[in-house]
Design goal:
Elements lengths: L6 H9 L5 H12 L3 H8 L3 H9 L9 H11 L1
Protein backbone atom coordinates (compact mmCIF):
# COMPACT_ATOMS: atom_id res chain seq x y z
CA UNK A 1 0.00 0.00 0.00
CA UNK A 2 1.28 3.47 -0.86
CA UNK A 3 0.37 6.36 1.43
CA UNK A 4 2.40 9.10 -0.22
CA UNK A 5 3.38 12.48 1.07
CA UNK A 6 2.63 15.79 -0.61
CA UNK A 7 5.37 17.55 -2.53
CA UNK A 8 4.86 20.52 -0.20
CA UNK A 9 5.52 18.46 2.94
CA UNK A 10 8.58 16.86 1.36
CA UNK A 11 9.94 20.25 0.32
CA UNK A 12 9.41 21.82 3.75
CA UNK A 13 10.95 18.80 5.46
CA UNK A 14 14.01 18.94 3.17
CA UNK A 15 14.54 22.63 4.02
CA UNK A 16 14.05 22.14 7.77
CA UNK A 17 16.94 21.71 10.23
CA UNK A 18 17.97 18.07 9.92
CA UNK A 19 19.34 18.15 13.47
CA UNK A 20 15.79 18.29 14.85
CA UNK A 21 14.50 14.88 15.86
CA UNK A 22 11.03 15.57 14.43
CA UNK A 23 12.53 16.46 11.06
CA UNK A 24 14.62 13.29 11.14
CA UNK A 25 11.47 11.31 11.94
CA UNK A 26 9.75 12.96 8.99
CA UNK A 27 12.57 12.03 6.64
CA UNK A 28 12.49 8.42 7.84
CA UNK A 29 8.72 8.24 7.37
CA UNK A 30 8.83 9.87 3.93
CA UNK A 31 11.65 7.57 2.81
CA UNK A 32 9.73 4.49 4.00
CA UNK A 33 6.24 5.72 3.09
CA UNK A 34 5.22 5.23 6.73
CA UNK A 35 1.91 7.01 7.38
CA UNK A 36 1.53 9.94 9.76
CA UNK A 37 -1.57 8.32 11.24
CA UNK A 38 0.50 5.33 12.40
CA UNK A 39 3.17 7.59 13.90
CA UNK A 40 0.48 9.55 15.76
CA UNK A 41 -1.19 6.39 17.02
CA UNK A 42 2.07 4.81 18.20
CA UNK A 43 3.12 7.93 20.06
CA UNK A 44 -0.30 8.94 21.35
CA UNK A 45 -0.34 12.37 19.73
CA UNK A 46 -2.42 14.01 17.01
CA UNK A 47 -1.57 13.84 13.33
CA UNK A 48 -1.18 17.63 13.34
CA UNK A 49 1.46 17.33 16.06
CA UNK A 50 3.40 14.87 13.92
CA UNK A 51 3.17 17.17 10.89
CA UNK A 52 4.49 20.05 13.01
CA UNK A 53 7.47 17.89 14.01
CA UNK A 54 8.07 16.93 10.36
CA UNK A 55 8.03 20.63 9.37
CA UNK A 56 10.40 21.55 12.19
CA UNK A 57 7.80 23.95 13.63
CA UNK A 58 7.83 22.18 16.99
CA UNK A 59 9.80 19.37 18.57
CA UNK A 60 8.63 16.41 20.61
CA UNK A 61 8.56 16.86 24.36
CA UNK A 62 11.44 15.23 26.23
CA UNK A 63 9.21 12.35 27.32
CA UNK A 64 8.60 11.40 23.65
CA UNK A 65 12.27 11.44 22.55
CA UNK A 66 13.07 7.77 23.36
CA UNK A 67 9.98 6.54 21.50
CA UNK A 68 10.70 8.81 18.52
CA UNK A 69 14.32 7.62 18.36
CA UNK A 70 13.16 4.01 18.52
CA UNK A 71 10.70 4.61 15.67
CA UNK A 72 13.38 6.29 13.56
CA UNK A 73 15.69 3.35 14.19
CA UNK A 74 12.99 0.84 13.24
CA UNK A 75 12.48 2.67 9.93
CA UNK A 76 16.19 2.78 9.09
Amino acid sequence: MVYGYSARLIDINKKADRKLIGVRLGRACIRNDFPVSKVAYRLGVSRQTVYNWFYGDTSPQESFIPAVEKLIESLS
